[in-house]
């Protein structure tokens, strides 16, 4: 029996795994149902569609920047299992609001005055939900798992997260908006039930007062976390990666619609392929490293990601004009196009390389700090990540504002992979020095 299989059968891991998987599924079902509906049914401009996608991303990321410090403190100073139950209970009420917004949008009732604002409120609230859940799902691993199981557990959490993203993305692209409105509420209820089975995880070490200050707390948290050079470089590398990922996810729906002339199911397919690739990369890197936490493969992985992005851009540039009877291709028509296979393979390569790059970096954050500090370390990482993702969304908005074609924006991301490789190389050098 493999280590991963053993973990999936263990009560100290399985309920957490299922709970975070359901949360990631619901998050992506809701966000993608919203974005795809707005892009394909409300706006009719490549620039407007990309800007709305960027705004939705900014709204979702904002809570990470505002509340991650408090989330990390809570996770280290309170029982993590208790916090999980409270968070999952809140998700039910958030999805009631989001479901109402989806239902109103589907009916076309007060679309711009009520429906879309309700959707964006729910997106912000789900950002808050993820802000408080994120530090726990990684920080609880060293508390419940053996030291030699942490990398495997982290890989499973990452792979499970992206498989959930995959499932949520597929469902969002194929079911109606009214069905999505019902589904997000039902999944939230199931997630709450599974969260109640997570074993207790009481705080380790001294209980300190909570700092609720929205500026002082994150500044102090980041300063304390960055004292270890390996953790500092891991946070910088992860943040740069997610800045690039944010730009890519913003580009996918308008690129599918306006460049490839494909329906929303194809835009959903792109996100599915990306999610599968990240999951494959997450498991592959654990096999290559044989359970050792190391950035050895990170520079090469992110360079490979950039090469695959260039290939993806070249295929998009060469994509022929579609002249079928319908304005947009469905999935069946799309996959029969001559360039569809190289397009999907290049995108899969981008995602696999990305997964191989980022998974060991998350393991750094939970293995090179004291167990009593792990949640705050993840929270500090989330603060910096959110700033990087805001920057990535801002870059995407600026590129669209100044008229850079969506396809050419892919080359900007590919070039930025060199900077990410440099950070990964510095991390590996710091790792060797600390041995």
UniProtKB/TrEMBL annotation:
It is a multi-pass membrane protein. The chain crosses the membrane at residues 50-74, 86-109, 115-138, 150-168, 174-193, 231-254, 266-289, 301-322, 342-365, 386-404, 410-428. It comes from Novosphingobium decolorationis. It is found in: Cell membrane. Keywords: Cell membrane, Membrane, Transmembrane, Transmembrane helix, Transport. Gene3D superfamilies: MFS general substrate transporter like domains. The lineage of its organism: Bacteria, Pseudomonadati, Pseudomonadota, Alphaproteobacteria, Sphingomonadales. This is MFS transporter. SUPFAM superfamilies: MFS general substrate transporter (SSF103473). Pfam families: MFS_1 (PF07690).
